[in-house]
Write a structure and sequence with these properties.
alpha+beta; Serine Threonine Protein Phosphatase 5, Tetratricopeptide repeat; 2 domains; 4 strands
Length: 281
């Protein structure tokens, strides 16, 4: 698609909000060309300029989406999350849907399957055609993985289970804004917990320590309000790789653990036997 056609499309979107700003539209077009050429740092710089300088809300939200995409490519995860959160509130359903899908993809990278399922479901409600179908399938895959993780956590002597990667998804974005990629799945194989382990609130299994500590930080205030200790993070060697576990509290009996679980909001948290070899109270 030519630069002129790109500018025309973006200006048409801006007109809905009350005016076509030629200069900022052209700048965003420069950002799109930089992204297509894999010059992500340049795309990030230009998109941030458009986002901060434009007085047009539609353009700012389109620019926020491009900030998120380029920051994601540069492994600037926090900046990407913040930008996608802004773009996800766009009145343009395409921009909002793709931002929500990218939130889903980032949740998959962190093994936050329930969050991913929620984001993909929201994306499907905004998108159309192939992208809507893709988002629905990804939501289904993520929900299945969330269920597998809960099952693994609550089955003390179950055989090790592998969470399969999702199948290939169609990609053919209808406009020049880059569509979210179909994320790769993460295989998680866990050894069974001991029958005599204390009960705990299992708050997630993650493929990176960073993701696990992010979950622990997110739940720290809820745990404190519930009178529970600070969430703990510890490594565990699975059959095929190293993973990190997040657990909250230890309980001799299941009943108080079930009562405490109701005070924790995340959908991934379940009551299970602790996998920590030496849990602290």
């Amino acid at each position: 698609m030519s630069a002129l056609r790109t500018a025309q499309i973006l200006c048409a979107a801006a007109l809905v909000a009350g005016g076509c700003q030629q200069e900022t539209t052209a700048n965003l077009d420069d950002a799109l060309r930089a992204y297509d050429a894999k010059r992500y740092a340049e795309c990030l710089r230009i998109s941030k300029d458009v986002q901060s300088q434009s007085t047009d809300q539609v353009l700012r939200q389109q620019a926020a989406y491009m900030v998120g995409r380029s920051a994601n490519e540069l492994n600037k995860d926090e900046e990407a999350r913040s930008a996608f959160a802004i773009a996800a509130r766009s009145n343009d359903p395409l921009v909002a849907g793709r931002a929500l899908a990218m939130q889903g993809a980032m949740a998959v990278e962190d093994d936050r399957w329930a969050d991913a399922a929620s984001s993909y479901t929201a994306a499907a409600s905004k998108l159309t055609g192939r992208e809507q179908t893709q988002a629905r399938e990804q939501a289904k895959d993520a929900a299945a993985k969330a269920a597998e993780v809960r099952k693994l956590a609550t089955t003390p002597r179950a055989a090790a289970t592998t969470v399969p990667a999702p199948g290939n998804q169609p990609t053919n974005p209808p406009t020049n804004l880059p569509a979210p990629p179909a994320p790769a799945g993460t295989a998680v194989v866990l050894a069974p917990a001991a029958d005599n382990s204390p009960w705990t609130i299992a708050a997630g299994v993650f493929s990176t320590e960073t993701a696990a500590r992010q979950r622990a930080t997110t739940l720290a205030n809820e745990a404190k309000r519930a009178g529970l200790p600070k969430p703990r993070v510890f490594p565990m060697q699975a059959a095929d790789k190293r993973v990190w576990i997040v657990e909250i509290g230890t309980f001799t009996d299941r009943a108080p653990a079930d009562a405490a679980r109701k005070k924790i909001s995340t959908a991934d948290a379940v009551v299970a036997r602790s996998r920590n070899p030496a849990p602290r109270k």
